[in-house]
Amino acid sequence: MRIDLNSDLGESFGPWPMGDDAALMTSISSANIACGFHAGDPGAMRATISLAKAHGVAIGAHPGFPDLVGFGRREITASPQEVEDFVLYQVSALTGMAGAQGVRLQHVKPHGALYNMACRDRALADAIARAVAACDQTLILFGLPGSELLKAAERAGLRGAGEVFADRAYERDGSLASRLKPGSVIHDPAAVIERAVRMVRDHQVVAVDGTTITLAADTICLHGDTPGAAALARAVRAGLEAAGIEVRCLGSTGKPAE
């Protein structure tokens, strides 16, 4: 069994730091780098690429809504053409900055509200997939298992990767529980590890109402802005490896956890 372990990084902005990217790099296999719209700036982008390169961590673009104040977690009304344009812009920016350091992007993972909306909205999902394909047909598009994002990836001729969240609660339909709900973010390391192992080994997770959901996990996300994220990532990786699950980036392994 194999799995990719990813985290959202590069989200500092100017003098305001967020997360402990350097510490997280020692545990993850893929980094989703903010591209300046919901968080991050050119300096943070370049520094995060450099960190990932030094640690042998694969990188991907993490495009979001143009919403620095709301950290990209507010739903914004935008046409599919607007979404396609600003995703194309952000992925292109990170592609160029990565190329300047001799690094290629592995994947694209939309951020926050854009991700959640595209997982259920075919038009937005297709707009994102078109933008990604226009940048590089070899890029992997992350999305919730069974979501419109993964269906859009297939329609655009892209490889899709089913992303699961060990530190987030799920609704019975397979969507993520709103962050406004108590318990939507799980902080207990033992619970997160147990969920991660079960997602990979058994392809299952228990929803907030007790329903058991079946899902296909290619990559597990741990949020970099969660307090204690670096320690949690170390514990999750150790727990996965203790269960006989290899942590490795998607680009070098093919689809894991099959």
CATH topology, by name, is: TIM Barrel
Shape: globular
Residues in β-strands, percent = 15-25%
- The CATH C-level class name: Alpha Beta
Characterize the structure shown.
The protein is α/β, with parallel strands linked by helices. The protein has one domain: Alpha-Beta Barrel (TIM Barrel), CATH 3.20.20.370. 37% of the residues lie in helices and 17% in strands. It contains eight helices and ten strands. The chain has helices at 21-24, 42-55, 80-99, 112-120, 122-135, 148-155, 189-201, 229-242; strands spanning 2-9, 30-34, 58-62, 107-108, 140-143, 159-165, 204-206, 212-214, 219-222, 246-247. It has a seven-stranded parallel beta barrel with strand order 1-2-3-4-5-6-9, surrounded by five helices. The protein has a two-stranded antiparallel sheet with strand order 7-8. Helix 2 links the parallel strand 2 (30-34) and strand 3 (58-62). Helix 3 packs parallel to helix 5, helix 4 crosses helix 5 and helix 5 crosses helix 6. The radius of gyration is 17 Å and the shape is globular.
